[in-house]
């Protein structure tokens, strides 16, 4: 029996070394499995609670009705969650709304009743202070004003002896033929590749820095290079470890995302949960995984090349960290509505993975295009591994000081 | 045996290196000749010292011999293997130890040595036999299961030695192997170098410390500015220095090489 071949020896040693590194474990396991889901659930729950608060908050609305004959104040007061404050001092309203003493004010025009009686629209002004939390409140006040308009329209139709349906000459019925899965894929399908691209990169980042720049800084690289093995064996062993950590990190991020969506966030519609269940069928998982592997290989080669170029661990961190944003740009492009998977976008790295994954999640992916994405990624991964091996053979890179 | 002939290596300087050379008043230019027509032979069962001041080209020469760098010109043979034609086979014949090398802090002493044995393709039974012998001789057994990051400098040095010779190389290269070590750790290295000679290995070590040469060397070469200033046996060098101390003789040769006349007339005692 002999000891493992050089590649296996490097793979085993680097894996052991990497799994004993706390920084790598945090980036590869803790962040995607615990921190990200907790943050996601936390943000979702906080946002839900704020929306609930905005829905349930009683709005203080001043109504200025010069003749006090429109009935608008009474109508608004009868609406749940609206407290009408009769007011006549128009001049101070804006300041009071700005100071948040009032949530809004409704000003009835001087000749409102005359216009309504003449079957013209009666004028009403709505004063409010726009802010992130006012959207919900504004829609509640507008709903109340709309119901007041319906009340007046009902009276007009009755006086004219017409039914309310007379204003509708065409009845449009909408039928969305997209399945729940497709709708989910279009709406949130872009989030999935965004997450796994991010973690595929960050998961491999620290091992890559440690395995190349770290070895250089410690001085162990020089000794390692005197081992009687081909240079490519060393590179391949390191490359496999970085690829593996990237994949593990991305898979764990997916698991964390699923667990947080399925169990951590309340109020998710059952049809959405059912659609998520459909996405988790073996075929879709296998297809997404098939795209993830060459992507992780490409990232691993890129990270190792940058890492070995750096003079020290610190320099490698400063070179590689900003790249996290760079690799996410194509993933964000995929979130822009109208960006589709075509024969051209299938050849653009990272963007192609994002778009293909979105289509796979929605169940609308064209097999030929997904195959093109896979093949182009595989070619890119192979080319980048070759470049990485050549890069490691360069004296001015390996012994750069 | 190590045979080196007409070895040369030129480096392109980085902007930072160019600037620091200019600041130091050194010659300007975008390249530097680190090693220039270097040649010597180190024989089995003898210790060959490569002596020179900092920046003389010792490390570059040793890196080329260890196949880490490829020379621009010249030939290197390691235990009969052409190191330029078959660097992997040459590396199989050599062990390389530098003073600046640290170990993998998260691996145990045992794991580090096993890793290098695996890379060298040592068969498992052979590995076990050599590991037991080495660990026993160096006293590593007591801490073999401890992670290297937790070991003292002396313990780490012993592990480095074990890792260097686990594949039983014929040639062992030490690049300033005692630099930065405390007296006890340095003494362990010195003892190990002597043991290698006793075992019939070819030993090549670089240093800028004359006392190490006095203690160890059978043969020596002095390099300066990448060029060979002297090559011969230690007794020959002692005889050539006459009444002067060995250190004075070393400095005299360096200063003679730096004087303008050195470019036209050969340095006394120089041979290639």
For this entry, give a set of tags.
heterodimer; A: 401 residues; mainly alpha; 4-stranded mixed β-sheet; 17 helices; 4 strands; 5% strand; B: 272 residues; alpha/beta; 4-stranded antiparallel β-sheet; 39% helix; disordered C terminus
Largest sheet of chain A: 4 strands, mixed
Name the structural class of chain A. Answer: mainly alpha
Overall body shape of chain A: elongated
Which pair of chains has the greatest number of interface residues, and how are they split between the two chains? A-B, 28 and 40 residues
Which percent bin holds the helix content of chain B?
Answer: 25-40%
Mean pLDDT of chain B: 87
Descriptive notes:
- The complex is a heterodimer of chains A (401) and B (272).
- Chain A is mainly α and 401 residues long.
- Chain A has helices spanning 6-19, 22-56, 72-78, 93-98, 112-117, 134-159, 180-188, 191-218, 220-225, 231-264, 270-279, 282-309, 313-320, 323-333, 351-362, 367-392, 395-398; strands spanning 59-64, 82-86, 104-108, 124-128.
- Helices cover 67% and strands 5% of the residues of chain A.
- Chain A is elongated.
- Chain B has a six-stranded mixed sheet, with helices on both faces.
- In chain B, 39% of the residues lie in helices and 24% in strands.
- Chain B is α/β, with parallel strands linked by helices and 272 residues long.
- Chain B has helices at residues 15-23, 58-65, 87-92, 109-119, 124-138, 153-165, 183-198, 210-216, 234-241, 246-258, and strands at 2-12, 31-42, 47-51, 73-78, 81-82, 94-98, 171-175, 202-207, 219-224, 227-233.
- In chain B, 46% of the residues are buried.
- Chain A binds chain B through residues 1-4, 6, 9-10, 13, 16-17, 20-21, 218-220, 222-230, 395-396, 399-400, and chain B through 12, 14, 63, 66-70, 88-89, 91-92, 94-98, 100-107, 111, 114-124, 127, 163, 167.
Topology diagram in text:
The complex is a heterodimer of chains A (401) and B (272).
Chain A: H1 6-19, H2 22-56, E1 59-64, H3 72-78, E2 82-86, H4 93-98, E3 104-108, H5 112-117, E4 124-128, H6 134-159, H7 180-188, H8 191-218, H9 220-225, H10 231-264, H11 270-279, H12 282-309, H13 313-320, H14 323-333, H15 351-362, H16 367-392, H17 395-398
Chain B: E1 2-12, H1 15-23, E2 31-42, E3 47-51, H2 58-65, E4 73-78, E5 81-82, H3 87-92, E6 94-98, H4 109-119, H5 124-138, H6 153-165, E7 171-175, H7 183-198, E8 202-207, H8 210-216, E9 219-224, E10 227-233, H9 234-241, H10 246-258
Parallel strand pairs in B: 3-8, 3-9, 6-7, 7-8
Antiparallel strand pairs in B: 1-2, 1-4, 4-5, 9-10
Helix pairs in contact in B: 4-6, 6-7
């Amino acid at each position: 029996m002999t000891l493992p071949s050089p590649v296996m020896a490097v793979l085993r040693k680097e894996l052991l070394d990497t799994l004993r590194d706390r920084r790598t474990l945090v980036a590869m396991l803790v962040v995607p499995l615990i921190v990200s889901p907790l943050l996601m659930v936390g943000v979702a729950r906080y946002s839900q609670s704020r929306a609930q608060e905005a829905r349930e908050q009683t709005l203080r609305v001043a109504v200025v009705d010069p003749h006090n004959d429109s009935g608008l104040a009474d109508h608004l007061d009868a609406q749940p969650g609206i407290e009408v404050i009769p007011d006549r001092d128009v001049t101070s309203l804006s300041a009071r709304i700005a100071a948040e003493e009032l949530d809004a004010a409704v000003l009835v025009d001087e000749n409102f009743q005359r216009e309504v009686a003449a079957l013209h629209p009666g004028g009403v002004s709505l004063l409010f202070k726009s802010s992130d939390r006012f959207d919900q409140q504004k829609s509640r006040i507008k709903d109340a004003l709309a119901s007041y308009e319906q009340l007046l329209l009902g009276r007009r139709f009755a006086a004219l002896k017409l039914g309310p349906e007379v204003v509708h000459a065409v009845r449009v019925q909408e039928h969305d033929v997209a399945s729940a899965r497709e709708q989910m894929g279009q709406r949130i399908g872009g989030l999935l590749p965004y997450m796994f691209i991010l973690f595929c990169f960050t998961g491999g980042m620290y091992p890559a820095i440690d395995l190349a720049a770290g070895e250089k800084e410690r001085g162990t690289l020089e000794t390692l290079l005197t081992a009687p093995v081909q240079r490519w064996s060393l590179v391949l062993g390191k490359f496999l470890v970085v690829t593996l950590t990237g994949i593990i990190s991305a898979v764990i991020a997916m698991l964390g995302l699923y667990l947080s969506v399925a169990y951590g966030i309340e109020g998710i519609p059952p049809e959405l949960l059912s659609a998520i269940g459909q996405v988790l069928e073996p075929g879709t998982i296998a297809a997404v995984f098939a795209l993830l592997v060459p992507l992780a290989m490409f990232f691993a080669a890129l990270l190792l090349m940058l890492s070995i170029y750096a003079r020290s661990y610190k320099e490698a961190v400063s070179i590689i960290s900003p790249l996290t944003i760079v690799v996410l740009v194509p993933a964000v492009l995929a979130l822009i509505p109208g960006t589709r998977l075509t024969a051209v976008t299938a050849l653009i790295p990272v963007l192609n993975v994002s778009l293909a994954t979105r289509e796979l999640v929605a169940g609308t992916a064209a097999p030929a295009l997904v195959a093109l994405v896979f093949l182009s990624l595989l070619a890119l991964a192979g080319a980048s591994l070759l470049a990485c091996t050549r890069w490691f053979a360069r004296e001015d890179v390996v012994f750069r000081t | 045996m190590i045979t080196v002939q007409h070895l040369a290596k030129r480096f392109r300087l980085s902007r930072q290196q160019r600037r620091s050379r200019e600041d130091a008043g050194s010659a300007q230019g975008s390249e530097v000749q680190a090693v220039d027509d270097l040649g010597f032979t180190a024989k089995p069962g003898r210790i060959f010292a490569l002596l020179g001041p900092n920046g003389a080209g010792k490390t570059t020469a040793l890196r080329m011999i260890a196949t880490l760098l490829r020379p621009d010109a010249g030939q290197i043979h390691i235990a009969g293997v052409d190191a330029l034609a078959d660097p992997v086979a040459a590396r199989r014949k050599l062990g390389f130890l530098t003073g600046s090398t640290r170990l993998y802090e998260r691996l145990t002493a045992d794991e580090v040595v096993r890793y290098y044995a695996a890379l060298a393709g040592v068969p498992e039974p052979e590995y076990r036999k050599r590991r037991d012998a080495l660990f026993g001789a160096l006293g590593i057994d007591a801490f073999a299961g401890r992670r290297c990051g937790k070991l003292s400098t002396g313990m780490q040095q012993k592990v480095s030695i074990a890792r260097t010779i686990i594949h039983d190389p014929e040639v062992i290269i030490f690049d300033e192997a005692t630099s930065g070590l405390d007296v006890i750790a340095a003494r362990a290295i010195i003892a190990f170098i002597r043991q290698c000679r006793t075992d019939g290995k070819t030993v090549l070590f670089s240093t800028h410390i004359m006392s190490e040469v006095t203690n160890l060397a059978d043969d020596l070469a002095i390099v300066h500015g990448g060029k060979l200033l002297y090559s011969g046996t230690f007794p020959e060098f002692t005889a050539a220095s006459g009444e002067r101390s060995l250190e004075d003789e070393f400095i005299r040769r360096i200063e003679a090489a730096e004087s303008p006349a050195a470019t036209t007339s050969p340095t006394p005692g120089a041979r290639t």
